Amino acid sequence: MDFNECIKKRIAKEVKEDKELIASLIKTSQNKFDSEKKLELNEVTSGSKISLLYDSLRELLEALAIKNGFKIYNHECYTYFLKEILNESIKGDEFDELRKIRNSINYYAKDVSVEEAKDILERIAKLREEILNVILKTKRAFIVHRWDGTPKSDWYPWLKGELEKKGFKVEVPTMPNTSEPKINDWVNHLKKVAGKLDNATYFIGHSIGCQTIMRYLEKENYNGKIGGIIFVAGWFKLDNLEGEEVETIAKPWMNTAIDFNKIKQKIPKLTVFLSTNEPYGFVEENSKIFKEKLNAKVILEKDKGHFTEDDGVSELPEILSEIDDGLNQNN
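Request: output the structure for the sequence above.
Response:
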């Protein structure tokens, strides 16, 4: 069986996120967790303690499923949910083993020694803590600035504040040697800042920041989907560069190939904002590449230049709309 079969058999279904129900499940799970702790462990209580702690774990899994848009009615389907929807194979395998142990106790009266019970209870408690951390995980957003930019440039401070209002933890890292950006330096710095990727990780790139994000995702060993990605003034080709020195800096970024398939498998969708009067040209060509290679949604804004302060752009509410749309789809 797999999760698709769970859906077909109607022992799992898609639902909208219910924050009140999630909070209630977390509370009842904690109550059972506390109750289990109050029971002294002996040969008489070992089965009861395992069942009680397992139920506490199962309620957290129900909360996690609802948070991700599913209501699950079959314990086995939680295994497939963890492995196939959340890409958490280790947690899925561990839950499946614990599920079978619990069933052998509840339904087949399997005797469990005190030492065995200690080990089982420790495993359940560990997985329960991991699941709770996943539920409470904070959404993270990384804004990667442009060439010659800083965290205080353009619309970055405004967007950081707006995303923080939505509960995001936001970082706008100062990229190295911003006047002479090099691929390896920028990619390695982003890797160090971003840490472990997950489905609550979001990236917003501006100009060369878009290139950095693509090249970082291309190289990163991660098999799941991140939360979302938005590019502003992204490019593959540039025109009207200011002299040979600038052209020399830009050439590796334009000429070093990108494996788009490795990026596509990590992103749920990509939205790219371009401007009708982009000073560095190639609007149609860049738009076409984003659409064809990354299935991007390209939004062409009127007269926004390169989306900098010099172009009169200090806020971009359009980005918030796209992020909200993405969050609604994920929920």
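The longest helix spans residues 46-67.
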